[in-house]
Amino acid sequence: MPRPIRAGFSLSALRHNLGVARRRAPASRVWAVVKANAYGHDLQRVAQALADADGYALLDLNEVVRLRDAGCAKPILLLEGIFQPADLEIVDRYGLTVVVHDLEQILMLERARLATQICVYLKINTGMNRLGFTGAGVRAAYDRLLASGKVAQISLMTHFADADADGAAGVAEQMTRFTESTVGMNAEISMANSAAVLRYPETHADWVRPGIMLYGCSPFADETAQALDLRPAMTLASGIIAVRDLRPGDRVGYGGTFAAPKSMRIGVVACGYADGYPRHAPGRSDSNTPVIVAGTRTHTVGRVSMDMLCVDLSAIPQAGVGSPVILWGEGLPADEVAACAGTISYELLCALAARVPQAEVE
Ligand SMILES: Cc1ncc(COP(=O)(O)O)c(C=O)c1O
User: Fold this and answer.
1) Residues catalogued as catalytic
2) Which residue has the CA at smallest separation from atom 14 of ligand 1?
């Protein structure tokens, strides 16, 4: 028998969440962001479920090839563009749209021998200070791309640094920089990630680029996925594999970081950090992490180990070996678990381990 752990994926949740993005940005086309194996949800599965998207945005050429070879004919945006000249052969062969964020990439493009002209997204650094051209460099890059003879269409893009936080001022500032550095350029524009799709309609422009919201998580610390009408696409579930009674003072797990304050009953869950569960999720008396056992909410006790974690069963007398456990997803937002572990749901979803068996539900 395999371990009871599994990850379930809801195709209807994915479709529903894309519908939410469309309703929030009704005049924009949607690049569904499916990088990092669709945030851990399986690229092919998500691309099929989100067949209504206008295109897919990702950055790994191997993933692009997998997508095209599986029959996907939609526009594909390479979010970091090319890394070396040979990448342009794949861009050419598979008809990809490429981000250009650096002069080196323009050089590679100028020197390339392409069968067809390609579509590019000129990336503008408006404050993130990661990728993209800044200030006067934008015009220079734009003119050089135009003059290269290699480009069929230039679109303009930027990425927001804090649309997910208390970012109204930051978003406005980035938009001002964007407008200033692109004066006179007649091009399609793409700016909005999930947070901007949901909170800043003025950023929607021609194409939006939602990622995390498609998977049913909230980009905001102060607004839940449920309040945003988003449904979890991934549910990480497992089962209780052992039950133990503790006496007051008994410690649990590596380092004995949890000591039972009273007599209690705990369960051992077949899920650990080798499955992608965050090792830093606390299980102490003063701070712990929610878990659902047999439909009832409880919490972790002790440190998460490689293959197991422990949960308090004191208030769930009906729970025993074989009882179902939900680590995150349906009924327990990944956002909440992530916050307890001092991280964000993105990291949890992307970290789902390959060893966890997967299943799809409608
Ligand atoms: C350039 C770009 N656009 C869009 C997204 C989607 O962001 P989110 O998942 O926050 O919607 C990302 C993700 O990091 C990104 O890097």
Assistant:
1) 35, 254
2) 211
Residue nearest to atom 5 of ligand 1 (CA): 193
What CATH architecture does domain 11-215 belong to? Alpha-Beta Barrel (3.20)
* CB 210 less than 6 A from any atom of ligand 1: yes
pLDDT tens, per residue, the chain with 362 residues = 789 999 999 999 999 999 999 999 999 999 999 999 999 999 999 999 999 999 999 999 999 999 999 999 999 999 999 999 999 999 999 999 999 999 999 999 999 999 999 999 999 999 999 999 999 999 999 999 999 999 999 999 999 999 998 778 999 999 999 999 999 999 999 999 999 999 999 999 999 999 999 999 999 999 999 999 999 999 999 999 999 999 999 999 999 999 999 999 999 999 999 999 999 999 999 999 999 999 999 999 999 999 999 999 999 999 999 999 999 999 999 999 999 999 999 999 999 999 999 999 98
Q: Which of 282, 268, 280, 275 lies closest to 321 in space, CA to CA?
A: 268
In sequence order, the 6+-apart residues with CB closer than 8 A to the CB of 249 are 259, 260
Angle subtended at Cα 261 by Cα 258 and Cα 262, rounded to the nearest 5 degrees: 130
2.40.37.10, 3.40.50.720, 3.40.228.10, 1.10.3720.10: which CATH number matches 234-361? 2.40.37.10
Measured by CA distance, the residue closest to atom 13 of ligand 1 is 211
**159, 190, 198: which to mutate for ligand 1, most atoms within 8 A of CB?**
159
The pTM assigned to this predicted structure is 0.97
Domain-by-domain residue ranges, the chain? 11-215, 234-361
Establish whether residue 194 lines the binding site of ligand 1, counting it when its CB lies within 6 angstroms of any ligand atom: yes
Query: Residue 346: in which H helix or E strand, if any?
Result: helix 345-350
Strands 264-269 and 234-246: antiparallel
